[in-house]
Every structure is written in structure tokens, then in C-alpha cells.
From TrEMBL:
Keywords recorded for this protein, A-Z: Acetylation, Actin-binding, Methylation
Biased composition regions of type Basic and acidic residues, renumbered to the chain: 1-30
Family matches, as InterPro entries: Troponin, Troponin_I, Troponin_sf
GO term, biological process aspect, one: muscle contraction
UniProt family annotation: Belongs to the troponin I family.
Protein name: Troponin I
GO molecular function: actin binding
Region (Disordered): 1-46, 179-206
SUPFAM superfamilies: Troponin coil-coiled subunits
GO cellular component assignments: troponin complex
Domain of life from the UniProt record: Eukaryota
Length: 206
């Protein structure tokens, strides 16, 4: 009886430990699943919409800020519009003179700014050249576009001029390569003797 009770107690202890281990494993797996599945597709979609909305708001604010800055600069440089409906001739002349003087000052400022910009550009180009020299980097010059086919044709013409076919031919003096007509034109030796006799007779008669 005592042995049976000891076995039962031992078996119960083993079962209890197994249940605890199983419970811990289930809790760990649930925690992993909950952590892994935090960003569900619905949450991702909602977050994407919120980011787009925030970006649109920031862009709108930036555009409004630029427009306000532009209006401020225009009002500062050009001034507010004058009321010309109730103005007389002297006031209109005064307003025109004022605008003329303002235009001259703005043109002077424009020329000064353009000169400063050109000066800064020259300084930047000089500094870039110095940096490239220190690095030992060669700046490639801008090359003109040339058709590759023109170069090929020029090379072919040059090769054709160098290669003269007639100069490559050899002079052949063998009789086997002479034409039959040339052989026919040649007279035999006995005909030459007859011709010489005829010439002598004609000379004697003369």
C-alpha cells in the first residue's frame, strides 16, 4: 500500500510539473504571437493614411508660408497700391516719381546681386579646380559628338589607297601566257627573207 501511494504521489508530481511546463510554453507562444502580430494589415493601412495626411498638412503649411513670405517681400519692395481715383494731377505726378525712383533703386540692387552671384560662381569653380588638383583628379573636357561610321569609311578609304592592286601584280614573260593573236601577227623567218629581197629589187629598179 505504501509503495502504491508513493508511486501515485510521484506520478502526480510529474503530471503537475508537465502541466506547469506546458502552461509556460503556451504563455510564451501567446506572447510571441501577440508581439509579432502587433502591426496588423488594418493598423498598417491606418498608419499609412495618417502619415499621408500629416505630410499633406505639412506641405500645405509650407506652401502657405512661402506665399506669405512672397507677399511680404513684394509689399516691402513695391509698396502698397495707391488710391488713384480721388487723386489730382499733382499727387499722380508725385506717385509716378516715387515709383520711378523705387524702380531705379531696385534695378541697382538687381545689378549688385547679379554681380555677387557671378563672383560667387567664379570662386566656387576655382575652389573646385583646386580640390581636383589636390586629389589628382583629371576633369574630362567636353567632347564633340562624332559619327563612328565616318571614321570607319575614312579608314577603309585609306586602306584602299595604300593597297594598289596593280602594283601587287607580277610581270610574266613566259610564252605560254601570250595570246594567240600575237603569235599570228609574228611572221616566220622565210617570209622576212622574201620581204628583204623585194625591198632590194625595188631599190635596184629605182
Amino acid at each position: 500500500m505504501a509503495d502504491d501511494e508513493a508511486k501515485k504521489a510521484k506520478q502526480a508530481e510529474i503530471e503537475r510539473k508537465r502541466a506547469e511546463v506546458r502552461k509556460r510554453m503556451e504563455e510564451a507562444s501567446k506572447a510571441k504571437k501577440a508581439k509579432k502580430g502587433f502591426m496588423t494589415p488594418e493598423r498598417k493601412k491606418k498608419l499609412r493614411l495618417l502619415l499621408r495626411k500629416k505630410a499633406a498638412e505639412e506641405l500645405k503649411k509650407e506652401q502657405e508660408r512661402k506665399a506669405a513670405e512672397r507677399r511680404r517681400i513684394i509689399e516691402e519692395r513695391c509698396g502698397k497700391a495707391k488710391n488713384l481715383e480721388d487723386a489730382n494731377e499733382d499727387s499722380i505726378k508725385h506717385i509716378g516719381k516715387e515709383y520711378h525712383n523705387r524702380m531705379n533703386t531696385r534695378e541697382d540692387q538687381k545689378c549688385d546681386l547679379e554681380y555677387e552671384v557671378k563672383k560667387k560662381d567664379c570662386e566656387i569653380s576655382d575652389l573646385n579646380a583646386q580640390v581636383n588638383d589636390l586629389r589628382g583628379k583629371f576633369v574630362k573636357p567636353t567632347l564633340k559628338k562624332v559619327s563612328k561610321y565616318e571614321n570607319k569609311f575614312a579608314k577603309l578609304q585609306k586602306k584602299a589607297a595604300e593597297f594598289n592592286f596593280r602594283n601587287q601584280l607580277k610581270v610574266v614573260k613566259k610564252k605560254e601566257f601570250t595570246l594567240e593573236e600575237e603569235d599570228k601577227e609574228k611572221k616566220p623567218d622565210w617570209s622576212k627573207k622574201g620581204d628583204s629581197k623585194v625591198k632590194e629589187e625595188t631599190e635596184a629598179e629605182a
